[in-house]
Each structure stands twice: as C-alpha cells, then as structure tokens.
Amino acid sequence: MFKPSEPSRSRPRIAVAGATGRVGSALIAGLVSEPLELVALSRKPDAQRVPSGVSLAAVDFDVPSTLHDALRGADRLFLAHGTSPRQVANEIALIDAAVAAGVGQIVKLSTMGPPSRLHPMDWHMQIEAHLATTDIGYTVLRPSAFVDILARAGAQIAHDSWGGAAGDGAVNLIDTRDVADAARVALLDDAHPTAQRAYHLTGPRAVSMPEIAEEISKLLGRTVTYQQRSPKEQREKLLASGLNEFVADLLLGLDRLFCESALAETTSTIETLTGHAPRSVADWLSENISKFRK
Predict the structure, then answer these.
(1) Whole-model pTM?
(2) CATH code at 136?
(3) Splitting the chain (294 residues) into consecutive groups of 10 residues, what average pLDDT does each group show?
(4) Is residue 49 part of a domain?
(5) How many domains does the structure of the chain reveal?
C-alpha cells in the first residue's frame, strides 16, 4: 500500500466524496477491510449510510473552509458528484481544496464519450480540463453508461410500456461494482503516485435495447418489446411521467448517444486493472429481474 503523507500516522487516509452514491458505496465496501482511515465526505452526514469504522465529514460548498477541514490530513481523494448544474463548480472546489490540503492523488469519476455539449459530458470535460492544470497525481475513470440505468425501466416493462429513442444503436453498459473495483485499485496503487492518467471502462460487449428486451424476455418467460420512439415523442413521455425538464433532457441525451452507438467501445481495462472480467448486462439482469416483474 502507499505511504501516508504524515509520518506520525501509521495508516493512510482516503477521503471519499460521493460515498453514498452508486459507485462510492461499492467503493467504501471494498475498502473498509483495508488498513486505512476512511473518511466519507457528505453534504448531509448520516452515520447509518456508511459502514462501521468509516468517519464522516460534513461539507458545505457554500462554505469553502468546510472542504479544507474535511480534507485535512487526507492522502488521497475519490471524487464523485451527482449530476447537477452545480457539478462543475463543486468538483473544481474540491479539487482546489485537495491541492491546498496537500492531498497526493485524486481519483475522479468521469464519463466516457465524445466531446459533446450534452450534459453531463460537457461538465466532466470542464472538470477534467481544470484537473489537468493542477500539480497533483490523478487518475480519471471514464466509464460508459451504468447498467443500472435499466432499473428505470422496471415499472414500464412490468406494464408493457418500455421504450425510447435509442433505436438499434449499441452501448457497452458497465456495472457500477466494476467501476468501484477499478477505483479501489487506483486508490491503492503506490507504484506511480504522481502519474496523471485516464482509463476507459466498459462491460464485456456492446448491446442494443432490442437485445436487452430479448434477454429480459427469456428471464421473465414472456415477450418484452422496446418500443421505438422519436426524440420528441420520448421527451413528451418522460415529462408526462413526472420527470422535470432537466432529468428528461439528460435521459434523452443518453438515448441519442445510444442511438448513435457513441458508447459502443469495448476495452479490456477492467480485467487488466482488477484481474477479473467485467460483469455483463445479462449478469445484472439475472440478479435484478425482480425489478421487472408485474
């Protein structure tokens, strides 16, 4: 393991921003048994949401001193933030606070995809550009779309109303647990602490929504169909379901990338980093098929 920046402390300290998110919670679970000091950064600290032995530090992005206090003594930082209009400002604030606090390495959760004006791809591009101007070691993780986005279709599939504007395009969906495994490796890597690098993370192969519908059909024992819609039709459906315009446009942007097969890339990075093959869409569906039952 890496050496802590403070010689008087026997165990290195890792700060985790986004500890209760999909990747962050899996990362914490993978690190909690290591000889580390783990600190979960949260805007709403709740001890019940993190495992025993993990410290909590409250952060308020409107009060910069709380960021510095939370990162004081940290050796490394895992940086994740929920998609929101404040994402760029908040992540940059954490990066700057980490540099000021003497953090030696940042592992940032980003996203894979082409240069784009679509959110959140454009936001991650801005954050990565800022990170590149700092004199700090960092690893940028760029996963494809998360497979558990399919959980949103649970009720729709149960009521035979699943559909979207993804067409027959292919996307290489990735399991958030595999992303967390890659983050764990990066955070524990002591070989090149000052390196600045980026990894593209994907599942084992790209699939289309109609192919996913076929797999769900096999698991449920009934026919499930992905109803093809135009972007306009899908936006109207999303808004009618109660989603606000911000979320509807995010999901529609994903459909556009799926339709264009912009996230169909396949990499071997998960296996290279972690030593195990990435989990497949079929694996995830099999584990979560109850979400799609009537």
Answers:
(1) 0.91
(2) 3.40.50.720
(3) 45 91 93 92 71 85 92 95 92 96 96 85 94 95 96 91 96 97 95 90 97 96 95 95 93 95 96 97 96 86
(4) yes
(5) 1
